[in-house]
Amino acid sequence: MTSPVSTRGASGTPRESAPDSPGVFARSPMVARIATLLVFGLAVSAGVRSVHVPPAVVPASAPPEAFSAERAMAHVRQIARAAHPTGSAEHQRVRAYLVAELRALGLEPRLQQTIGIASRFPVAGQVTNILARLPGTGTDGKAILMTAHYDSVAVGPGAADDAAGTAALLETLRALRAGSPLRNDLIIALLDGEEDGLLGAAAFVHEHPWARNVGLALCLDAGGTGGRALLYETGERNASLVRAFGRTPNATGSSAMYSGYRRMPNDSDFSELRLAGITGLNIAISERGDRYHTPLDDPAHLDPRSLQHHGDAALGVAREFGMMALPPAAEEDVIFFNLPVLGFVSYSIGWALLLAVSSALTWLAALVVGRARAKLRLSEVALEALAALIALLAAAAAPFAAWTVLARVHATHG
Ligand SMILES: [Zn+2]
User: What is the distance in A from the centroid of ligand 1 to the CA of 272?
Assistant: First the structure.
């Protein structure tokens, strides 16, 4: 069953060509392969760029209702001058700075001084949380809680972890006060003792009366010094939460990240809130993890665009959820991620199953049609599938092997 393809050349004269030699690509399969690879590679890199590169910095000259990373960066430079672990003199200096900045914004900051007892680890310790409340116009007393932690690890100044989150909240408060008021109250909690076992968060949810008003929480933290601020954890039955978050500017997130994160020993203040039954969103600057908890987590190495994205998320969430009835309705769970061009996408787990089954069926149909038209050989398809599987395993094994070798070398050199 062969039917020669009839085409017309540029001169308009009909010309016959067999299916085996329709053009330059078929005559030179290597050219076709390289071209395909090139186009595919360019499309993938453009896609990856659009999903990973944070938005441009908004300058300090922007209108007062806007979040400006240039303005927030001034706070980061003050907070992350040096390492400021809980209990250090530098930590006290940072606390005094934050209290003064909150007062300058017209708020009345309060200190919660107590012993924080962790729920997740066998640790306890003295903490001093800094709390402030921006009243809304509503009467039900429900509040959005926004948290960052103002302590750092002892080995580095913590510009991203978590001076960035703290600075983003100060700049968000400033921008909110410049605009029209929200319906819901806003509680800003600059928590202490995160690096020692989420002690400040534990103290807030266990002891502070304001914790009972919280209808939604947003935590800002960092596991690196660059890239986008990523929504990687939410409360359960998150459909309405995630959809509202998707309407904020430059919304970026990945539900797959959370699946991985749950299997890691890492934790953040959001864990204590979740255990206390508070729903919400957990966002982190998450690329350049090589600088996380090192002396290189300093203001010079923090990407100001990541700070801008942190602020876009904080201000966006405040404005989006600030007018909603809280807590958001608990519906089904959704999957979410970002796509090039389309941006933030979310759909229910039911849809995910449907998509998986339909793509498997499409693949099978292509196989059957290909066989029927004698275009596919089953042995070749099996070989290609095997090659793809090996490539996948090799891609997973290579970083693991590199990490093992590097860790050995590092241990040898102390
Ligand atoms: Zn942190």
Answer: 14
Nearest Cα to Cα of residue 191 among 229, 165, 159 = 165
CA of 176 to the centre of ligand 1 (A): 24
Distance from the alpha carbon of residue 332 to the mean position of ligand 1, in angstroms: 30
Domain membership of residue 178 as a residue range: 69-348
For residue 357, how many other CB atoms are within 10 A of its CB? 10
CA distance linking residue 13 with residue 21, whole number of Å: 18
Query: pLDDT per residue over 373-402, tens digit each?
Result: 887 788 888 888 899 999 999 998 998 898
DSSP string, 244-275: HHHTSTT--B-HHHHHHHTTSS---HHHHHHH
Taking the C-alpha atoms of residue 130 and residue 190, their distance in angstroms, rounded to an integer, is 5
Q: Is position 217 within any domain?
A: yes
What gap in Å lies between CA 23 and CA 20, rounded to an integer? 9
Contacts of 293 (CB under 8 A, 6+ apart): 153, 155, 156, 161
Does 287 reside within a domain?
yes
Residue of 69, 176, 67, 84 lying closest to 132 (CA atoms): 176
Distance 223 CA to ligand 1 centre (A): 7
Specify whether the backbone of 66 is left (phi greater than 0), alpha (psi in -120 to 50) or beta.
beta
The structure tokens listed for 97 are: 């700075």
Q: How far apart are CA 163 and CA 166, in angstroms?
A: 5
Encode pLDDT of 265-317 as tens digits: 668 999 999 999 999 999 999 899 999 999 999 999 999 999 999 999 999 99
How many angstroms is it from 169 CA to the middle of ligand 1?
A: 14
Ligand 1 center to 188 CA (angstroms): 16
CATH of the domain at 344: 3.40.630.10
SS3 124: strand
pTM to 2 decimal places: 0.83
